[in-house]
Queue: 2 jobs
Job 1
Amino acid sequence: MPTPPLNIALFGSKFMGKAHSNAWLQAGHFFDLPRRPALHTIAARDADYLERFAKQWGWAGWTTDWRTAISDPVVDLVDIGTPNHLHREQALAALEAGLAVACEKPLAGTIDDAREMRDAARRTGVPTFVWFNYRRAPALALAHQLVAEGRLGRIYHVRAAYLQGWGGPDTPLGWRFQKSRAGSGALGDLMAHTIDLARFVTGDEIAEVTGAIEERFIKQRTRPDDPTKKGRSSVDDAVLFLARFRGGAVGSFESTRLATGIKNSNRIEIHGEQGAVRFNFERMNELEFFDGNEPPRTQGWRTIQAMHEAHPYAANWWPDGHWLGYEHTFANQAADIVVALSGADPIVPIPDFEDAFTTQRVMEAAVQSARHRTSVKLSEVT
Ligand SMILES: NC(=O)c1ccc[n+]([C@@H]2O[C@H](COP(=O)([O-])OP(=O)(O)OC[C@H]3O[C@@H](n4cnc5c(N)ncnc54)[C@H](O)[C@@H]3O)[C@@H](O)[C@H]2O)c1
């Protein structure tokens, strides 16, 4: 008997709606998967747009009521690409129905929501995944492998920043600037990725957050529903903190949506006793590597173009040297999710709700450190 397809219901049809629709389609085309991902139902709010979206992307059905997708007995996996305040309700409903869940980051807008999601995943035992997609840029997956192989030795420094520049005073008051819907600003939007990457590449955990600063530079923004009026922006525009890792490394973290002139610079630099790596998403196919064990005469930074079939995920795409883009990180994750659901190991680990809750605890430690101007041990954030 042929293996049945993996029927997906996706919630959200805009930025991540497109990224995920493309990912499920491309995963089925470019990876040899144990089950074929099938675009079963797309759910969002605007019926006219949804009908067109479903046709354009090949979704078999669409609905403005996401609950109907959860009660459909043929759906296998719920994929959540909606604003952060909706993650909890949608994930809990899916988990209670026994459906696997792939949820966008941050796990939730608040730590309380995130904890409830983590607890529900534990209680139901249903597989969960969180779209920390940058892990699956081949160059970053390679960095993770090099550290795991001991090529950097003991880690001393982690220097990480996620910088974007689109959030100036002319940017309207969308959901990303409303605490009730986003939970936080640059913290959940960008820093969540940075924390996940630092944990992923080092294989270590943050033990303490200190010296955090949150800043809301722009307090009023134009209301999208009535451009003649302004409303209160209630989230951080920028967040910075220092950290200590369990293994002894120290780290600095910075995220902002006000880095004028910078589009999408997700950077990490790690120095170890025997070597170092650095990555910037603006040149996402390259990993810079310094091997301290090479003879001094030829020692130096090398730029590895991580597109050879020897590099993680690259063999599934184009011949060596043909660049991958943002969308491939999602397709790689979609493929890994299908593989993990079949019981096999993904190419690199996928964060589940338990793992993403650890990232959320670091975010919460940063909030508390900024609010109380103090150091916060992760063991105090539960
Ligand atoms: N992994 C990444 O690189 C990445 C990038 C961008 C956004 N995200 C995350 O993805 C999520 C969505 O962000 P986005 O940029 O796609 O937002 P968006 O504003 O572009 O799209 C939100 C979608 O949610 C739908 N929606 C809103 N309320 C709904 C409801 N009550 N029921 C059903 N659908 C509803 C909207 O109709 C829209 O289709 C957020 O959690 C965000 O943090 C992740």
Job 2
Amino acid sequence: MERILVTGGAGFIGSHIVEALLAEGYKVAVVDDLSTGKRENVPSAARFYQCDICSPELEAVFADFEPDKIIHAAAQVRVTVSLEKPQIDARVNILGSLHVLELARRFRCSRIVYSSSAAVYGNPQYLPVDEAHPLNPISPYGISKHTVEHYLHMYRELYGLDYVVLRYSNVYGPRQDSSGEGGVVAVFTDRLLTGKPPVIYGDGGQTRDFIYVKDVARVNVLALKAGSGGIFNVSTQTETSVNELLKLIQMEIGGSGEVIHEKERPGEIRRSFLSNRELVRTFNWHPEVDLKTGLRETVAEFRKSGSSFSKGQG
Ligand SMILES: NC(=O)c1ccc[n+]([C@@H]2O[C@H](COP(=O)([O-])OP(=O)(O)OC[C@H]3O[C@@H](n4cnc5c(N)ncnc54)[C@H](O)[C@@H]3O)[C@@H](O)[C@H]2O)c1
């Protein structure tokens, strides 16, 4: 069976990818510096290397594990960090990714599946946003995620290293960071479970496209075999407002229904959802977990792992 190296495999999405790979019988290794990820997120059946993807030690990881293919999910994921310290964001997301690509080339890996983001599009000019939408990222994070897509194309053209780019919408599910910087589902769930009122910025009418992490993990596994040289949105193509989302989480958890309203955040995108037509056509993939079911599973997991919420992972 093929050997798959998952960068960022101790993180939220990466750890679900690792589980999905193991379930399919792949040999899996994780490389992660544990900056936001956790060692306990990595199943014992996967080999673990604690290593910064920017460090020279990464070469020894490739030499030791000899991966056939790479799933590259390690990144500096916080938009606010990217705005405050764009060099740090670029170091991990651009230079770190380039390091992974160079080693993939030198160690003759055949394919790399890359976790990109809807952040590459910036403010939607039309909805749903498809892959042909102009790319005008409005954060250093969006720029760094997109820059790697160019390198991937170049490595395929020059060196025959195949790739698949997956641009995720808003991913949610168990193990997501619930600190202020985390995803809105994790933040709301954490607040409600700890008896604190959730905070809504603006009127709560802003919309997003929420996709369950296990559906995202499944696409990563499929992309090891299909979608050669392609760029795909990974989304449910469904628009949900923050108010609707909160209502669904409140239905699961209960509570007083109290909400704190704060001023709208400057630059916040009003409406966003992504077309998944290309993904469905190429991979014959459909999101299997609807929002209500996904939220139920997420809340149940957050309840079980009580120690991890309210602290966040940062
Ligand atoms: N969560 C979302 O909604 C979302 C949306 C779009 C794209 N993405 C992308 O998905 C990927 C996974 O994000 P996530 O939400 O699971 O975040 P996460 O922070 O849980 O996962 C990132 C992982 O990378 C590791 N990491 C960070 N810097 C590293 C370095 N220098 N060397 C080695 N490991 C390093 C972290 O420790 C962590 O385990 C990222 O590439 C992110 O850009 C996430």
